[in-house]
Amino acid sequence: MERYFWHLNARQADGMACVVCNADFLGAKITSVPVGRSPADESQVFACKDPCAAVIADEAARMAKEMRAAVGADEVDDEADGGDLADGDDPVFCVDGHFGSLLRDLRTLAGAEALLATSDDIPTLRFLLGLTARHAETAMMRARLVLARTKEGDG
Q1: Rounded alpha-carbon distances, angstroms, from residue 136 to 117, 119, 132
Q2: C-beta separation of 4 from 38 below 8 A
Q3: What digits encode the pLDDT tens for the residues 105-116?
Q4: How far is Cα 9 from Cα 21, in angstroms, rounded to an integer?
Q5: Is the pTM here over 0.70, yes or no?
Q6: Do residues 17 and 25 touch, judged by C-beta distance below 8 A?
Q7: What's the chain's average pLDDT?
Q8: Residue 19: CB atoms within 10 Å
C-alpha cells in the first residue's frame, strides 16, 4: 500500500525536492529514493536517501506495530515500543486508535462535502470524489471494528 504525503509544495509534489526536509534534488547532488505518492495526482514523491528516508521507514514501522497492536494481531512488547501502551489501556479507543482515526475520517468527509457543494471544477470534483471514496471506506471499516470491540466488552 502506497503512503500518501499531504501538504506538499509544488517542487515536492513534482519529485524535485525531499518531502521531509525540502532539499532540492536538482541543485544539490543528493541521492533520493521513492517514498510514496502525492494525493493530488498520484505522482511519485521522493525523500533524501539519508537520513529522511530512514526517518520515514522508522515512522512507518512504528505505525504498523501500533495498528497491529490495536487489532490484537500480535503482542505488544513494552520494551520494544518504550512502554507507550499501559496495561489495561484499549488502543482502539485512544486518540491515536481506531476511534480517533474514525473521527478524523468523518471530519475529512464533512470537509469534502462542503468543498463538493461549492466546487464546479471537474478535476477538483474528481479529486474530492476520490478522497471521499477512500475515507468513506476506511471510516466504514473502522466503525465496524469499533462496533465489534464494544460488543465484546458488553458480554
Answers
A1: 17, 20, 6
A2: yes
A3: 888 888 888 888
A4: 12
A5: no
A6: yes
A7: 78
A8: 26
